[in-house]
């Protein structure tokens, strides 16, 4: 379709293009690929498991599962992994500047101490991180320490690391590379994390001497050297502190070696400034570089905002957004939610209002909480919660659960699956709010209701699920239903920040931005499927996962830092920290927003009109998606039947019903900030903030000083009030400048009274944001004319003689011209003086003559 081609480039499925085989290890190969999705380079390790038994396969899979949770700037990230036939595939970050081994052996002179400290700091903080998780690396060596061109160091190859069951646990197996093996290992003793510290000491020694700590012609001699701990001396150019640290790390007795936390406190690091910040900055630059396609629009910082909150609903038969007048006139909303046939709103007074959209004929079963089964058409206060401050509400298909300020839960509606947690009542339908007693002494932070199950996050960070368990949506390892809340096992050491229940699956968002999910992955709606197109030894294009009974990380999204997720009936959408929108799942109605209706088996980044915007909110319903962007626009796409899209869009040439659109389309006419958005089944409800008045600061392009010097006009209006975007015009008034004295910023005020493109006249204090003190100073200031070109004249410390040309430009004439003119003037004055003198003499003579004539008539 012509219209679509211009608006949206055909999205490509992610595939891998082989770059080169990096090398072969003991168990397989490491191969470098380019990922077509974002042109990033990734390494896939292909490990042959043909000789491994079932248990070993399971163990290696479990071990990598845990390693994939690690998230540290100095550890090679594990993005994805799966076992296909006899091959274990692991996708990981590519370190693009070789290994520390190569770096050391290419050195022609010793490293400066500063470099050694920088590398050692990064290695130690990586080790501190894994040790905290109870992981021992067990193969620390310069060959397993990778470098990036940006100067970062990355600890990799956890191939033989072992997850310790407890911090004090001892692993039995003798593994590792002999040169780095600690005395206790050589002697056949047990070891713990201190063996990694020994290896760290060996690496440090290698960096300081450019040779191995213990080199011996045979294993026996090596063992003897290590046990006797005979190191050679370190060059005296290195500080005493450094030499002391090597000795501490290479202590024969494990107990005498420091732990990572102690090493990090060494004055060698503290003297070097904020090394942690440097690592963080370098890593975030690399992360940003990966987001090449993500051109986020210029950010402005709001300063003053006057706004009005309104509630709109659509869908369920209502084609265009309907304003719910009640919340404009009487109550101010702070949170909204919808179920299949009902809406719920929490107001600033912490009250809950519910009402029905019984358009489809569905009967009420108590989900409104008004004590009966009437289908109230306008918002009605849930009186059973009067006096109980509610901070959040969530709607299931036909039930509602509220969280109070002190973390208590109240539920009402259908208890068919035990969602309302009513373990005492015989009835399935709870018509008025009842407390969910299970949580009386476990305060809840957040609740999310799916179609027929619930997930709650406690204030302590634990996750509980209950209700229907089909497809493993409760993440409890089975499909069993549970009428009482069950604590969920969270893999790794993830701290959960948000919980989100869908129709038959559940998402969890961890504090580190990882997305975890459990339940049905039909059509990839939980995002688990991995693209494998282009990978050697893999024929199928996608590695398909039908469902998960336990929570696992959604690995295809492990490189994104997810902040928000919304599961729909057959698809899902999530937003990352940069405001990029990703969709996955069924695309029958174009609900993935990719400009077509093709089946998509993996993850997609929504582009088109949204590519340059920051998506702030998203919600998925049954076959449709709604998204709000940072420029106060609202978009919808997918199945438009029954008004699900809040507007009527016509899309030519598509195969499904004429009410579908596969591209994000702006809805809602004018522009609004949407702080809350919820879709369920065919309904959508939003809070729309109408910004009546907004003033923002944004960095100015040129320095006001420069304008002041260069243009007399600019000197009068150094801060220009940018005419308002028509976005926030309704009833807005100009705001007197509050922060215009902050020189690096220019004021951008939304002002309804001045027409677009009109410039304020100078000196008008209402329109110009010039501060009064500066205005006064400018009025009194002498006017100095400056050449339009930046000549040497302006550069302090570079006062070269003024050229004739510049003089002419500044003063309109040269010094020579001036001299001639002065001479001419002098001559003129002289002539005049002469003439004056003559005249005076003549007058005197005439007066004398007249006098004598009077005396002698
Ligand atoms: N993430 C990575 N980034 C850059 N190069 C890598 C990465 N992982 C592995 N390599 C390189 O690929 C090659 C093969 O690595 P691999 O891990 O398969 O074997 P190895 O580490 O040499 O041996 P083994 O795993 O048996 O100890 C090595 O040269 C290694 O430096």
Automatic annotation (TrEMBL):
Residues 746-763 have a biased composition (Polar residues). Its cofactor is Mg(2+). InterPro entries: Kinase-like_dom_sf, Prot_kinase_dom, RCC1-like_dom, RCC1/BLIP-II, Reg_chr_condens, Ser/Thr_kinase_AS, STK_NEK. It is found in: Cytoplasm. It comes from Patella caerulea. RCC repeats lie at residues 350-406, 407-460, 461-512, 579-631, 632-690. The keyword Zinc does not apply. This is non-specific serine/threonine protein kinase. Residues 739-770 are annotated as: Disordered. GO terms for cellular component: cytoplasm. It holds the Pfam family WD40_RLD. It is an enzyme of class 2 (transferase). The keyword Manganese does not apply. Belongs to the protein kinase superfamily. NEK Ser/Thr protein kinase family. NIMA subfamily. Residues 16-269 form the Protein kinase domain. Its EC number is 2.7.11.1.
